[in-house]
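FAQ: What does a multi-protein file look like?

Like this. Sequence, then C-alpha cells, then the next protein.
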Amino acid sequence: MITPDPLEALKEAFQSDDGFLVELRCFARWNKAAFARLVAAMQHYLQSVEPGEHVERWIAEGFWMHDAMVRELSRSTTRSAAEQVYYDAAYQRLGELAGWFFTGQSPWQDGAPPFDA
C-alpha cells in the first residue's frame, strides 16, 4: 500500500530494505508488485511537487538510480517476446518518470501514463 504522504511514500520506495531495486540488485528478482508500488510512488510524488520547489539530493539520486540501474541489473534474464514487451514498457516508464522529475514536464498529455505497472 502506498503511504498517503507522497514524500514518505517515495522514501519508502527508494530506501526500504525490501524495495524493488534492492530485491533486483541482491537477488536478481523482478518483483512486479514492488515495481508497481515504486512507479506509483514516483508518479504520486511528481504530481504533488510544486515547480521550483527545493529537492533533497536523495530524491534526485533515487530517480536517477532507478532509471539508470534497473535495465542494467535485469538485462541478463532470458525472456519470451511477450515478457520483453512488459520489461521494455517498464524501462520506458522509469525513463519517463525520471525525465519528468528532471525537466518538470509530464510526458503524458492528460497526466496519466499509457502503461499500467
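And here is the next protein:
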Amino acid sequence: MSANLPLRDVHLPPAPSLWPPAPGWWLIAAAVLVLVAIPVLLRARRLRRERAWQRQFDAELQAAGEGPLRLAALVELLRRAARESRAGSELLQGEAWLQVLDPASALAPAQRDLLLQGAYQPVIDAAQLATFERWARTRYVALLRERSR
C-alpha cells in the first residue's frame, strides 16, 4: 500500500432535522385530529338540530295566539314530540299521558292540572302559562332527542 494516499478521518453524517417530521408522525397527527374532530362535529350537529327544534317550537307557539289557544298549541306540540319519541303515546289520556310527559313528576300539581284541563278554561293565568311554556320547550326538545337516539 502506498503511503501517499490522502486519507482523512471518518466523519459522521449530520443528525436528522426535526422538520419535516417522518411520515409516521404525520399519520399519528392525522389520526389524532380525526379522533378530536368526530365528537366535536357530532356535538355541533346535535346542537344545530336542537336549535332547529326550538325555532320550530317558538314559531308554532307564536302563531297560536294567547291564553287557552296558546296552551292548546303547547299540548299539541308535546303530543307530536311524544309520538315521535314513542309511537302510540299521543293517544294516552290523564295520568298515563302525564307519566309520558313528566316521568320524574317535576311539574307542580297546578301545572299538571293546567296541562290536563287548561285548554278548556276560558282564562289562564299568564305567569303560570309562561312557567309552563319554559318547561314545555325543554321537554319538547328532550322528547325529540329521545327519538334520535
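Q: Is there any per-entry metadata?
A: Some entries carry free-text notes. For the entry above: Helices lie at 23-64, 68-85, 94-101, 109-117, 126-147.
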